[in-house]
Amino acid sequence: MHGGTIVDATIIDAPSSTKNKDGKRDPEMHQTKKGNQWYHGMKVHAGVDAGSGYVHTITGTAANVSDVDETTKLIREDDEVVYGDSGYTGITKREEVCNNEHLSNMEFRINIRPSSLKTSKTYTGINWDKKIEHQKSAVRCKVEHIFLIIKRQFGYRKVVYRGIAKNLNRFNVLFACANLAMCCRAGRAEELCLV
User: Fold this and answer.
1) From residue 138, how far is each of 51, 89, 133, 176 by CA, in Å?
2) How far is residue 79's CA from residue 31's CA, in Å, rounded to a whole number?
3) Which burial class, exposed, middle or buried, applies to 36 when counting CB atoms under 10 A from its CB (0-12, 13-18, 19+)?
4) Contact 168, 46 (CB under 8 A)
5) Which end of the chain is flanked by fewer CB atoms within 10 Å, N or C?
6) What is the pLDDT of residue 191?
7) pLDDT tens-digit profile of 78-87?
8) Kind of pairing, strands 30-34 and 107-110?
9) What is the pTM of this model?
10) What is the pLDDT of residues 4-22, one digit of tens each?
11) Residues 6+ away with beta carbon under 8 Å from 10
């Protein structure tokens, strides 16, 4: 795997019901607002190889933890470039990045918010800013395929266990299986001795 890392996170819902033996929600899960919707659960942060699209690192946190907080844990030692969506804006100003020699020399290709790309309606030329953001998104979209496989094809939209550590063990297996599924789709089943 080579080509840099794409970082992203997805929210996995947890039961918000208190109709259990303890009469409480899972204390490790928290709630967060995305758009106009509130979610209660955990976040799975994934580091995906920009060249192949395979997941190499995942971490799990409560849903209210910011995406930027887990970024340094998802970057490999040999990476030279990192792609991310607008949730990772300001990563270059963080203390753990500035104090690390490897991370401070790395190129961060972070998409800016779409509302920041403003041009007048009368402008007829090429909007270079929009074109550059489209190129970044074209690379960054590989991370969304992994989340699609986990949530839609494997049907894992809600956590099964209480606690982040138990669920993260299950996610390690799910993301490994997602890598295998992507490998088979690419016609590389012979390399894995699956045929």
Assistant:
1) 12, 18, 9, 23
2) 32
3) exposed
4) no
5) C
6) 64
7) 889 999 998 8
8) unpaired
9) 0.86
10) 899 999 999 988 777 667 7
11) 43, 44, 46, 147, 150, 151
Tokens of 87: 């949730």
Could you tell me which residues come within 8 angstroms of residue 45 by beta carbon, excluding any fewer than 6 positions away?
A: 7, 8, 9, 58, 59, 60, 61, 67, 70, 71, 73, 74
Amino acid at the residue 69: D
Q: Each residue of 87-129: pLDDT tens digit?
A: 898 899 999 999 999 999 999 999 888 777 777 777 777 778 8
Q: Which two tokens stand for residue 11?
A: 């929210």
DSSP string, the chain: --S-EEEEEEEEE------SSSSS--TT-EEEEETTEEEEEEEEEEEEETTT--EEEEEEEETTS-GGGGHHHH--TT--EEEE-GGGTTGGGSHHHHT-HHHHTSEEEEPPPGGG----TT--S--HHHHHHHHHHHHHTHHHHHHHIIIIIS---B--SSSHHHHHHHHHHHHHHHHHHHHHHTT-GGGGT--
Q: What's the CA gap between 8 and 10, in Å, rounded?
A: 7
What does the block give as tokens for 15?
């039961």
Distance, first Cα to last Cα, the chain: 22
The structure tokens listed for 35 are 């758009």
